[in-house]
Design a protein that fits this description.
Length: 207
């Protein structure tokens, strides 16, 4: 067994303590954090036109331009105000919502600059998350007609209640554990790196 390994084994408690110090607060934070669910509704964006001079390529380019605007508009209160009204008319819990609160729950994704957008809604209740996501999509389909006149928002898939909460706690805990491990090794090896341990051994040998 190498001298360095023996040295580390004698100071293994330092490494364990460093990991515990780093991971402990993260576990406490993750357990105190409210559980949230994410539901997603998807739509295809296509700028349709009746002009015979406009080809499909031009329509696709126009749609990409629209998507940039839609990513800003969908989570805005201009859309969520009508969502709140619709939910308040259908559900008792909808009356407690505000346009601002709904806007904070909505996130728009557009992977790889495609023509498909995902309307993601987070909520503590999986059923509500799906209902709100679908309501946002329905409201924006109507709102978009004020901008383009035609049906530029085509629903692909309605949101379904998620079965499991969205959580990145394991990632945070793993990162904290790795940071604690590195920190523990550095602290344990600090006397060696500074030459303090070697000086002590030489003094003992001389004595």
């Amino acid at each position: 067994m190498s001298t360095l390994l023996v040295y580390l084994l004698k100071r293994i408690w330092i490494i364990i303590l460093a990991v515990a110090v780093c991971v402990g607060p993260v576990i406490y934070w993750s357990n105190s954090k409210p559980v949230e669910y994410k539901a997603s509704a998807s739509a295809y964006i296509l700028r349709q036109t009746t002009s015979t001079s406009t080809n499909l390529y031009q329509e696709l380019l126009a749609a990409l331009s629209l998507i940039k605007d839609y990513k800003v508009l969908i989570p805005s209160t201009a859309v969520t105000a009508s969502v709140q009204e619709a939910l308040a008319a259908q559900y008792e819990w909808g009356k407690a919502l505000t346009a601002e609160k709904l806007a904070s729950q909505v996130r728009i994704e557009n992977g790889n600059e495609s023509h498909i957008i995902a309307i993601n809604v987070t909520d503590k209740d999986p059923e509500k998350a799906a209902i709100i996501a679908n309501a946002v999509l329905d409201a924006f389909k109507q709102f978009s007609k004020k901008i383009t006149i035609d049906d530029s928002v085509i629903e692909i898939e309605a949101a379904q209640p998620p079965k499991a909460p969205t959580s990145s706690n394991k990632l945070y805990i793993g990162a904290a554990g790795l940071a604690g491990l590195v920190l523990g090794f550095l602290i344990a090896l600090l006397p060696v790196m500074l030459g303090i341990d070697s000086s002590r051994r030489r003094r003992r040998t001389a004595a």
